[in-house]
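sry for the spam today, last one i promise. struct tokens for design, 310 residues
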């Protein structure tokens, strides 16, 4: 029987219960639900998982609560450099973008790179030039400015620290990288992730998000994955592809493979974070080894699930 399902995340990290008001919790949950709805609207009409993950991530990119698109964190220089990726599991096609500025929806650019560039990953000024050529929407710097994010940078700019924006334990708000994974009624899987990266990042630093096989991966034979956490560890552990390989070559279930990466391998390396994953039967796994992860899922015929803590 054909079915569909979608899962999303809005970042993992030290999300301290005492520092988030009930109203703020509600705002996060509403934004997560709206993103699930945007994806489900496509899936229930027979649309593709690729379109669904793009729609869900665009919804989260447009929401200033999350560290992607409009809510992207500041670099050391006080700019925004965003990364995003999208992948489909049938033909293993992928598109990704890194270090772009002023792009309203980096995931839309990643999709356009996949569909029209002949390349997989475009970076920096070249990616911006391709975006202009393809009539991608740009926004002024003011669109990406928030006083809260600016204050986050000011607190650590004169240090060598970089921070997961949702792990600032003395701050009243937590935000995060966003992602979506989905299965459509034709049995196709897709994954997408979008981020501003880490507050105070320098020197063209790139995280796991746009690295296919690390922060984002999809393969119809196994699963679709979108990660959130300190990207360096996710790149070194090649998290997305490793989960897929554990399933394909070792016969592990989605749940077992995700557990192995998030609760064993990443912890051994010292990597904090989580991920969302879906397999070709519509099973969903959303493990994290941090205090919380903004996350949600919607399966055909079932209720919306939206959660923050364990
Ligand atoms: N994984 C992202 C990065 O390292 C950060 C995050 O998940 O918030 O760029």
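last one done:
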């Amino acid at each position: 029987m054909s079915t569909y399902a979608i899962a999303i995340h809005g970042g993992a990290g030290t999300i301290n219960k005492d520092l988030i008001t009930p109203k703020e919790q509600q705002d996060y949950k509403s934004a997560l639900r709206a993103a699930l709805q945007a994806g489900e609207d496509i899936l229930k009409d027979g649309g593709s998982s690729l379109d669904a993950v793009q729609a869900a991530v665009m919804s989260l990119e447009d929401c200033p609560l999350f560290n992607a698109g409009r809510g992207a964190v500041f670099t050391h220089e006080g700019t925004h450099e965003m990364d995003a990726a999208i992948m489909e599991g049938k033909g293993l096609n992928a598109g990704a973008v890194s270090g772009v500025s002023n792009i309203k929806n980096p995931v839309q650019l990643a999709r356009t790179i996949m569909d029209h560039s002949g390349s997989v990953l475009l970076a920096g000024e070249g990616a911006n030039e391709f975006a202009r050529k393809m009539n991608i929407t740009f926004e002024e710097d003011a669109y990406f400015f928030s006083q809260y994010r600016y204050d986050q940078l000011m607190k650590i700019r004169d240090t060598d620290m970089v921070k997961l924006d949702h792990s600032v334990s003395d701050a009243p708000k937590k935000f995060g990288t966003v992602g979506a994974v989905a299965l459509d009624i034709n049995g196709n899987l897709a994954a997408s992730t979008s981020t501003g990266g880490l507050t105070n990042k320098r020197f063209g630093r790139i995280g796991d998000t746009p690295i296919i096989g690390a922060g984002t991966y999809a393969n119809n034979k196994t699963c679709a994955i979108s990660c959130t956490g300190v990207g360096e560890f996710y790149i070194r552990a090649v998290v997305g592809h490793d989960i897929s390989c554990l399933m394909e070559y070792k016969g592990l279930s989605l749940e077992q493979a995700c557990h192995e990466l998030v609760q064993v391998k990443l912890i051994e390396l010292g990597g904090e974070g989580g991920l969302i994953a879906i397999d070709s039967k519509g099973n969903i796994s959303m493990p994290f080894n941090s205090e919380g992860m903004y996350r949600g899922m919607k399966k055909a015929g079932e209720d919306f699930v939206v959660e923050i803590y364990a």
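The chain has a mean pLDDT of 93. ok im logging off now
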